[in-house]
């Protein structure tokens, strides 16, 4: 049986994935294939290349301390939250020209990704790995599993309107969250028999005060429905409650990692039972 690990997007809340991976490793659960969207692709790529939670934590710390980031850096950005949309509108209104393509360049994102992956390729990973992006020309998800990790993961985290789309052949790629924030079916397509999905839970609130809040709420409802559909296709889901974490600030990465670890460790017995049943 081939066991797959599917890591969802969610801005800097995605550091919780490192803690989840640590708990799975301690429990002796062998992962045969992994994929992810956006920050889930970043963490998934790290895990596939360096399957060790301590190494992952060290690399995260290095990025935090060495790369100048702002609220639109892919390591801090999340499409979740009125604060994000307000910040987006404030900058966009002040610079209409930026709306033609993107508000931010990928310069800092590429710098951060190179710290993590250097010139390594998907073919170099110790665990088969794929990053999920969205092709806005075809209107469908794209499974990226060849080429440089930096290039493929950059496409998976190219927030529409915030970062420039990534050209890959005839495809125009943006963040995978648009269609598959928790890309379970894409992992199933690649041969995973038992899929463990990890989601970064934040329930949308209907408490809105203006049009921006309402826009966020409607987007959150759509995203929640898509994620519920994806989760239903997994064999075991790990929901990590990250609602108290600001997805646009990643200085508290150690706390996020610990939250992911504790949440996953608590449900390991149930997961082991499910795996045993699936192997029977």
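Q: What amino acid sequence fits the structure above?
A:
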């Amino acid at each position: 049986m081939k066991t797959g690990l599917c890591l969802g997007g969610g801005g800097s809340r995605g550091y919780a994935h490192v803690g989840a991976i640590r708990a799975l490793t301690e429990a002796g659960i062998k992962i045969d294939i992994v994929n992810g969207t956006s920050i889930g692709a970043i963490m998934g790529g790290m895990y596939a290349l360096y399957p060790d939670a301590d190494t992952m934590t060290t690399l995260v710390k290095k990025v935090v301390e060495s790369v100048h980031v702002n609220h639109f850096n892919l390591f801090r950005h999340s499409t979740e939250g009125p604060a994000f949309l307000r910040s987006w509108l404030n900058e966009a209104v002040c610079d209409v020209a930026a709306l033609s393509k993107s508000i931010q360049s990928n310069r800092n994102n590429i710098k951060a990704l190179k710290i993590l992956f250097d010139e390594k390729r998907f073919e170099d990973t110790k665990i088969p790995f794929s990053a999920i992006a969205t092709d806005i020309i075809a209107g469908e998800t794209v499974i990226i599993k060849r080429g440089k990790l930096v290039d493929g993961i950059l496409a998976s985290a190219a927030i529409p309107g915030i970062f420039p789309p990534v050209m890959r052949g005839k495809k125009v790629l943006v963040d995978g969250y648009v269609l598959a924030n928790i890309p379970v079916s894409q992992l199933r397509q690649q041969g995973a028999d038992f899929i463990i999905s990890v989601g970064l839970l934040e329930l949308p609130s209907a408490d809105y005060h203006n049009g921006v809040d309402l826009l966020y709420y409607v987007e959150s409802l759509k995203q929640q429905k898509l994620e519920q559909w994806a989760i239903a296709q997994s064999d075991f889901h790990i929901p990590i409650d990250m609602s108290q974490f600001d997805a646009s600030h990643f200085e508290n990465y150690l706390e996020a990692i610990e939250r992911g670890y504790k949440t996953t460790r608590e449900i390991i017995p149930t997961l082991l039972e499910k795996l045993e049943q699936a192997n029977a």
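Q: And what stands out in the fold?
A: The longest strand covers residues 194-201.
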